Amino acid sequence: MSASAMAITVEGLGKRFGAVQAVDDVSFAVEPGEIFGFMGHNGAGKTTTLRILLGLTQPTRGRATVLGHDVVRATLDVRRVSGYLPASYALPPDMTAREFLLYVAAMFAIPPAQARARSEALLRRFGLEGAADRKLRGFSTGMTQKVGLAQALINEPRVLFLDEPTSGLDPLGRHELLEHLRALSQQQGVTVVFSSHILSDVETLCRRVAALHHARLIACGEIAALKREHGAATMDELYLELVRRQAS
Ligand SMILES: Nc1ncnc2c1ncn2[C@@H]1O[C@H](COP(=O)(O)OP(=O)(O)OP(=O)(O)O)[C@@H](O)[C@H]1O
């Protein structure tokens, strides 16, 4: 696939925070409609890369595009077509789920009637109708993640960036969330970047992955091919082998 046909392109991306090189010469591309896995240990640079792709942090080197929009020069276009579920964030405790979705819709300047229709559809889709008028302060981890995903979808994004979306979820909650993501990709052609430490979830959902290690990309490609290449039977084995090779 040519670079211009890619949903996301990342070329020689770098980010330095003072003395810390958070992302170092990272390049990869994501195809439209694919669910692309992003793995790496704590502090490897995953969140920083996602935040650069969303235009929330400026790179110190390199360039990246989302649906052809340069993430530095066309940040507003990038935000318009993107949804983001951060790894951790505080929902406003005194808002109800419904109020919160309408609030996020207003930030995207979605007209009120459309905002109401989308909010109701998302509340239904995530089984939150019964809790829609409850204040967010009492929401469980699973319900909070569903609200988080609903807010990330309010602008009907074509590209969805998810940072650790399944952490803290029970097996049923994880399964439901993975099914939602699969449906978004397969039925609506949404491109998903799925960053996770839970390698079984990455394997369940993604055909291709990138692995970051100490800010650098140490592997990128099809999971099946990477496993073959590195003689790994499982995803955990693959990841450990990739990291081991860096150390030796
Ligand atoms: N705003 C910041 N200021 C200074 N250093 C930062 C900042 N954001 C990230 N870093 C540093 O950059 C490095 C990469 O962090 P990042 O959050 O991108 O990693 P990560 O792979 O997402 O980790 P985790 O899995 O723990 O979320 C870390 O050393 C981190 O401390």
Describe the 3D structure:
This is ABC transporter ATP-binding protein. Residues 8-239 form the ABC transporter domain. By secondary structure, the chain is α/β, with parallel strands linked by helices. It has one domain: P-loop containing nucleotide triphosphate hydrolases (Rossmann fold), CATH 3.40.50. The chain is 40% helix and 25% strand. The protein contains nine helices and ten strands. It has helices at 46-53, 75-81, 97-107, 112-125, 141-153, 171-188, 199-205, 223-229, 235-247, and strands at residues 8-17, 20-30, 35-40, 61-66, 69-70, 82-85, 159-163, 191-195, 208-213, 216-222. It has a six-stranded mixed beta sheet, sandwiched between helices. A hairpin with a 2-residue loop joins strand 4 (61-66) and strand 5.
